[in-house]
UniProtKB/TrEMBL annotation:
<feature type="transmembrane region" description="Helical">
    <location>
        <begin position="182"/>
        <end position="203"/>
    </location>
</feature>
<keyword id="KW-1133">Transmembrane helix</keyword>
<feature type="transmembrane region" description="Helical">
    <location>
        <begin position="391"/>
        <end position="413"/>
    </location>
</feature>
<keyword id="KW-1015">Disulfide bond</keyword>
<dbReference type="InterPro" id="IPR004156">
    <property type="entry name" value="OATP"/>
</dbReference>
<protein>
    <recommendedName>
        <fullName>Solute carrier organic anion transporter family member</fullName>
    </recommendedName>
</protein>
<feature type="domain" description="Kazal-like">
    <location>
        <begin position="465"/>
        <end position="521"/>
    </location>
</feature>
<keyword id="KW-0406">Ion transport</keyword>
<feature type="transmembrane region" description="Helical">
    <location>
        <begin position="41"/>
        <end position="60"/>
    </location>
</feature>
<feature type="transmembrane region" description="Helical">
    <location>
        <begin position="425"/>
        <end position="448"/>
    </location>
</feature>
<comment type="similarity">
    <text>Belongs to the organo anion transporter (TC 2.A.60) family.</text>
</comment>
<keyword id="KW-0813">Transport</keyword>
<dbReference type="GO" id="GO:0015347">
    <property type="term" value="F:sodium-independent organic anion transmembrane transporter activity"/>
</dbReference>
<keyword id="KW-1003">Cell membrane</keyword>
<feature type="transmembrane region" description="Helical">
    <location>
        <begin position="357"/>
        <end position="379"/>
    </location>
</feature>
<keyword id="KW-0812">Transmembrane</keyword>
<dbReference type="GO" id="GO:0005886">
    <property type="term" value="C:plasma membrane"/>
</dbReference>
Amino acid sequence: SDGTASTSGPINRMKEDVSVVMCGLGPWRPLWLQRFNSTKGFLVVYGLLGTIQAMSYIYFIATLTTLEKRFKIDSRTTGLMMSGNEISQVLLSLVLSYYGGQRNRPLWIAWGVAFSAASCFILAMPHFLYGPGEAALALTKEYTHAFNSTVLSKEQAALCLRGEESSSKCEQGGGEFSHIPALLVFFSQFVLGIGTTLYYALGQTYMDDNTKKSKTPLLLSLTLSLRTIGPAIGFIVGYGCLRLYIAPTLTPMITNKDPRWLGAWWLGWLILGTAMLLFALLMAMFPKKLPSNKNKIDTVNNGDILTLETVKQTEKPLEFTNGISREKLVEVDNGEENLPTMKEFPSALARLLRNKLLMANILSGVFYILGGSAYITYITKYLEIQFHQTAAGASVIIGPTAILSMTSGFLISGAVISKFKPRPVYLLSWNVIVGISFIIGEISFIFLSCEDSNMVGFRGGDQGLNLIDECNRDCGCGSLNFNPVCLESAELTFYTACHAGCQQGDYTKTPITYTNCSCIPEDIAAIAFTKSGLKKDELVLRTGACRTNCFYNFIIFMAITMIMHTLGCSGKIGNVLVNYRAVDRVDKSFAQG
């Protein structure tokens, strides 16, 4: 029995060592799977996970205006809903990064990705709870066949039917607003914040601890570049989903250029959530330590840790500070690691708070995010309003430009840092230049926009609209919602067909057209008659606002945006490296949180 007892200890320890360095799940760790158990394998899975994470964020941005229109949510409420992500990160990031950083990091990342997948499914729930909405159904052929009289009365309500009361024709109330969709979006963002924290705080430090430090900048640039592909694909997925009607099985009677069009915003969340679950499973298979480095650790020489006082004097490049040159690699002690406890948390936090360089670098990142978060969140909406792009069109434009510029910034900076190994002071100075350039770019946007379409009744400034005139005073248009119509020959936009004084409409065509419109100005009618021979009551208006041509300003805006993205991403790797090298090895994940 003594012999059995003496051998059981080494056997159990060997099993534990196998679980620490071999790829698999639980007891299932086949030999054929170990060919993927390397830094390259982790780089691919982690990078593709970043791609999907970025896709989900950008897809939310791309479908934001559709979500707002569907559930009658204003932009202020949207901002509050999106704050759920930041709230969960502020509340939980320190604790999650502190505990997860010294445990099985791939497994913790996998759980984080599972939380992100759950947030995707939660985001799709409002559609399954409330459906596409009566207004969207009313614009389909199937709805027309089932409720023909109802649809007809609603279409007639958009016309100028003189002598009838507006209350008999117009929908009352603001629509189907409910607090539940807004709460679900907030909750989804809160859950997403948990997954995002674990992914960013633990993944990069795991990779840094399992590779040569001279290769860290290049590997970071590769993972960040893979992540950068996400926005482009996210915008493309958004474009594809928004071109599908919100009820894909029904046949819409309007095109996606009609302002009443609602795309299938919910569909992408099912795709993204499923993809995240699959990659979470792959991430969970990686061991606590990759086998190529299982017998190596980095000695931590406090004299080599980058500090605010030594950042100017040190001649060492960032990838060789903090005691991580190959000559300093030593054998690992096979003893049990000391896992963090709540008792040690305050002292670890105080240690980071006293690190002046780390705090300065973190604060610079915070202010950078504060300046850019609104820009990133509302960029597609900005293109829709300022440059008159469709929701789907704005998504497909932003995607390719973002991937080209951001990937260029990551790859170029990663290659430069790996090859030339610049001193820390140069990298930090470059980040200052990047920040100043970002501010200049943001200010320049004030002067770039398109002229508003020539809206009849618009008085300019803050005076609002004066929609009622003699030509439509007895049409009963007062309670109608915005549904613009355009007289293309004169580039005139009317608030609705009713406000244009139109008394006839052709609903068999797409887009819907209107004739016999009494509010067309006489001088414009005279010009039209001279050119085409059409009388005033024969001029045709179509649904949708008139589009102005501002291609030049739009190109300048996109060029500045690409430059800002390239410069911004070129400073990211240096910023991350400073965080890594300014702290002790055991605090690395905690510092990222």
